[in-house]
Design brief:
With 178 residues, the protein is mainly α. It is 82% helix and 0% strand. The longest helix is centred in the middle third of the chain and has 44 residues. The termini are far apart.
């Protein structure tokens, strides 16, 4: 029995198991499985789904899983993909919580966690650069993500204001340029 619910659940369960670093680190795996392997969405749709998932409240990985599952088979598809995404993390955290007190002072475990941190940064950086390429950034638009990141990081501007201003700017640009 190889139905879309089981297939999408397995796919997102696999993504959930093999991803460290949160939702943004999942982007390359989701793209490989959903766009390249299963062809459930196109590259352009994936870029749009990432943008929508980022701007919605909640966990990024769950948001994108829900959107893809809903596209595949409405509410039941969304339930299958979101459960597939969340279940591995839940089980892993449950197991860690059961045994962590035995290892929390272990120098080897602490060193392993310190070693994982730089790889998580790379897992987040790669999809960011790929998204930038696909968003067709050029010398006229590259300043938008740079200024946005600097405003959030250096000035403490809320990302919500950045999203609102970017949406307003895009709307105005679309009305004037088109």
């Amino acid at each position: 029995m190889n139905n879309i619910y089981w297939e999408s659940f397995k796919t997102f369960f696999k993504i959930g198991i093999f991803t460290l670093g949160g939702g943004y680190a999942m982007i390359p795996l989701i793209e490989e499985e959903v766009v390249n392997r299963h062809r459930w969405v196109s590259r352009e749709e994936m870029l749009d789904l990432i943008a929508i998932a980022q701007s919605c409240p909640g966990v990024f990985a769950i948001n994108i899983a829900i959107f893809i599952g809903y596209k595949l088979n409405k509410v039941r598809g969304a339930i299958a993909t979101s459960l597939g995404t969340a279940l591995p993390s839940f089980l892993i955290i449950l197991i860690i919580a059961m045994f962590f007190h035995q290892f929390e002072d272990n120098k080897v475990v602490a060193a392993m966690f310190r070693g994982i941190r730089p790889s998580v940064v790379a897992l987040i950086a790669v999809p960011t650069f790929n998204l930038g390429k696909r968003a067709q950034l050029n010398k006229f638009t590259i300043w938008i993500p740079i200024i946005s990141a600097l405003a959030i990081w250096l000035l403490g501007v809320s990302p919500i204001w950045i999203i609102i201003l970017a949406g307003l700017g895009g709307y105005i640009y679309g009305r004037v340029a088109l």
